[in-house]
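Hypothesis: this fold can be encoded by more than one sequence.
Test: take the structure tokens below, design a sequence, compare later.
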């Protein structure tokens, strides 16, 4: 019963809300800024993606830690879970501080090499110079989410999602448009609202963990002494996950830089469509994260023979959800786009791209579940190899379609279909023909 469809839904639903809250930061920023102007839309896309590329390093590290904590949870070695959490959080904060210092000096020079429009460049740098301070909070947030997912106590993510989303939406409205006596900061207001939302999320996790978690059971202590052996153990699993998470976002960043060279309107379209794309992918991502931790728990319980059953069950559920989202998008593209902009011309030009990503979501619904299952078995190195192979072809497709052939933006978005098709093929080949049952972590 632990691996039944009901339990998969029980675990994945709060994860869905947690992912929704994290992604709502980008979605609400885009939705509000779409009513400000196309320059703000394009700048938030590039500045926001630059930030997310850095954030994925923390997310990848936390997924590696989550795999370890889930395995220890399956083994009943609960005290070790708290040690992974505390040591992992400390290391994540060190990474955040280092990346913040590096970004302070390198963001503008790097963006100036890649962005052709001076207006977009200045706006992107202005957005990122405030947004980057969120690293100090978001890096720690990922570790707390990993902890609660690993011990399958995911209801807390529901509450955290509500808190984070509420803070971001309220402050976006107030700071972008100058409501409730606050100054109208526009693009910079969106960045500040996002930072404050992440800070509020971390504060919630600290308070909840302090008063609602059994400290003795999970080996959580107030005193802290660095355990470099444990950090190295986490890194042995997570380093491949960090690269695996970073590479797709880095290529997304390249995608937007390529679209920026096509024009300001094309960049605005790409940002709006990407926002819809991310939002509709969240149910699939939630199930993928769920299958990752349930597979790890199953192996920890010594129930390796149940892994393929878990994957098949989750795959069917993901495909149903993905197909539903794709059909809904295809039926009401103008309604979705109107949330982000009042420009009839922008909506008309963006509709073909919505149809393309709808097709990509159906393939992603299958590929993500299979792909995250590889990491759940503990073989994050194999997952990285599959990711790299898919990303190389994805990057070549982007360069040729946008920079060389200069296809319209909707044709450039077909790179998502190509990427997920390759990811699905590589994942199925690994799960079917490679010996993943004896992977030890």
């Amino acid at each position: 019963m632990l691996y039944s469809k009901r339990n998969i839904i029980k675990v994945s639903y709060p994860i869905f809300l947690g992912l929704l809250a994290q992604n709502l930061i980008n979605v609400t920023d885009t939705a509000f800024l779409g009513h400000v102007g196309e320059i703000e839309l394009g700048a938030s896309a590039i500045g926001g993606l630059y930030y997310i590329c850095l954030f994925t390093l923390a997310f990848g590290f936390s997924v590696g830690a989550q795999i370890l904590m889930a395995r220890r949870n399956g083994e009943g070695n609960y005290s070790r879970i708290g040690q992974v959490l505390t040591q992992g959080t400390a290391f994540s904060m060190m990474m955040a501080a280092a990346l913040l210092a590096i970004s302070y000096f390198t963001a503008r020079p790097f963006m100036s090499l890649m962005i052709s429009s001076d207006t977009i460049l200045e706006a992107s740098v202005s957005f990122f110079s405030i947004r980057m301070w969120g690293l100090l909070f978001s890096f720690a947030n990922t570790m707390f989410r990993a902890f609660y997912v690993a011990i399958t106590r995911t209801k807390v993510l529901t509450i955290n999602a509500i808190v984070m989303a509420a803070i971001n939406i309220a402050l976006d409205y107030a700071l972008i448009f100058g409501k409730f006596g606050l100054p109208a900061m526009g693009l910079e207001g969106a960045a500040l609202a996002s930072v404050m939302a992440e800070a509020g999320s971390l504060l919630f996790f600290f308070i909840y963990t302090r008063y609602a978690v059994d400290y003795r059971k999970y080996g959580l202590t107030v005193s802290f002494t660095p355990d470099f052996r444990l950090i190295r153990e986490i890194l042995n699993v997570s380093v491949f996950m960090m690269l695996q998470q970073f590479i797709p976002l880095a290529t997304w960043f390249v995608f937007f830089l390529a679209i920026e060279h096509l024009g300001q309107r094309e960049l605005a379209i790409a940002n709006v469509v990407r926002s819809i794309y991310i939002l509709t992918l969240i149910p699939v991502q939630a199930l993928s994260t769920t299958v990752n931790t349930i597979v790890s728990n199953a192996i920890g319980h010594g129930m390796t023979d149940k892994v393929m059953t878990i994957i098949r069950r989750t795959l069917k559920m993901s495909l149903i959800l993905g197909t539903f989202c794709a059909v809904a998008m295809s039926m009401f593209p103008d309604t979705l786009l109107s949330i982000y902009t009042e420009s009839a011309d922008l909506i008309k030009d963006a509709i073909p791209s919505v149809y393309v990503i709808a097709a990509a979501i159906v393939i992603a619904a299958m590929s993500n579940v299979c792909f995250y299952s590889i990491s759940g078995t503990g073989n994050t190195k194999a997952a990285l190899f599959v990711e790299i192979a898919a990303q190389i072809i994805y990057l070549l497709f982007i360069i040729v379609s946008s920079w060389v052939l200069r296809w319209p933006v909707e044709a450039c978005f077909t790179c998502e279909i190509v990427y997920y098709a390759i990811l699905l093929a590589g994942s199925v080949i690994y799960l079917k023909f490679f010996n993943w049952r004896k992977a030890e972590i």
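The CA atoms of residues 374 and 430 lie 8 Å apart. The chain has a mean pLDDT of 86.
Hypothesis status: open.
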